[in-house]
Amino acid sequence: MSDHAPLPEFWVRKIRSFFVLFDRDLDGIVRKEDYLDWVLERTKSFLAKDKQEKYKEYWNAAWNEFWGGPEGKVSVTFEEMMQSHARTFRDPKFAETCKNWFNLTFDGADANSDEFITLQEYSDFLKCYGVHPLSVTPSFQALDTNHDGLISREDFTNAGRDYFVTTDDNPSKLFWGPFLC
């Protein structure tokens, strides 16, 4: 897909919904400090101190990779963030970068480090982003591909990556909870 081709509408809806998770004051701008501080403050209620520190590293790296970009932006509009994530259509390494990042994020969400995420752990993970508790179970069920009541590392990383790199309507669309806009 060229830099000027229209982006797939379903993909744009997913990205818009993701942006809204972080645009807490609804001003159309996400600032790095809001992105980091808001999420990290919420992790204090369910992650051990060492995992909080790792999560902070992951989220700072995520801002730099996926939001701030090589320019080192400290705030971005929806359009800027969408164009940054649209690399998925130009950069063959983008999907792997996403998967690697979600592999690290799994370690934060897997609070007891047993290599699986339970419904409670997923609920705590989504709570960091302000997802309503009633929205968690449908999202969890969509990602629990073998319906054993657990999300494996593979299911988590694949769904997280697919949220950003697929254009079709599939279960990964619920990775961050329901669409918000």
Attribute tags:
181 residues; mainly alpha; EF_Hand_1_Ca_BS; Sarcoplasmic calcium-binding protein-like; two-stranded antiparallel ribbon; Recoverin, domain 1; calcium ion binding; EF_hand_dom; calcium
What this model shows, in words?
This protein is mostly helical. It has a single domain, classed as EF-hand (Recoverin, domain 1), CATH 1.10.238. 57% of the residues lie in helices and 6% in strands. It contains eight helices and four strands; from the N terminus they run H-E-H-H-E-H-H-E-H-H-E-H. It has helices spanning 9-22, 32-43, 49-68, 78-85, 94-109, 119-127, 133-143, 153-165; strands spanning 29-31, 75-77, 116-117, 151-152. It has a two-stranded antiparallel ribbon. Helix 2 runs antiparallel to helix 3 and helix 3 runs antiparallel to helix 5 (94-109). The radius of gyration is 15 Å and the shape is globular. The model has no long low-confidence stretch (mean pLDDT 89).
Produce the secondary structure layout.
Layout: H1 9-22, E1 29-31, H2 32-43, H3 49-68, E2 75-77, H4 78-85, H5 94-109, E3 116-117, H6 119-127, H7 133-143, E4 151-152, H8 153-165
Antiparallel strand pairs: 1-2, 3-4
Helix pairs in contact: 1-4, 2-3, 3-5, 5-8, 6-7
CATH top level? Mainly Alpha
Q: Could you tell me the strand content as a percent range?
A: 5-15%
Shape: globular
User: Main beta sheet, described?
Assistant: 2 strands, antiparallel
Structural class: mainly alpha
Query: What low-confidence regions span 5 or more consecutive residues with pLDDT below 50?
Result: none
Number of helices: 8
End-to-end separation in angstroms reads 25 Å
**How are strands sequenced across the largest beta sheet?**
1-2
**What's the rounded overall pLDDT mean?**
89
Order of SSEs, N→C?
A: HEHHEHHEHHEH
Counting DSSP E segments of at least 2 residues, the number of strands comes to: 4
Q: How much helicity do the residues have?
A: 55-70%
CATH homologous superfamily caption: EF-hand
In the CATH hierarchy, the third-tier topology is known as Recoverin, domain 1
Task: Please tell me the total number of domains.
Answer: 1
What is Rg?
A: 15 Å
CATH architecture assignment name: Orthogonal Bundle
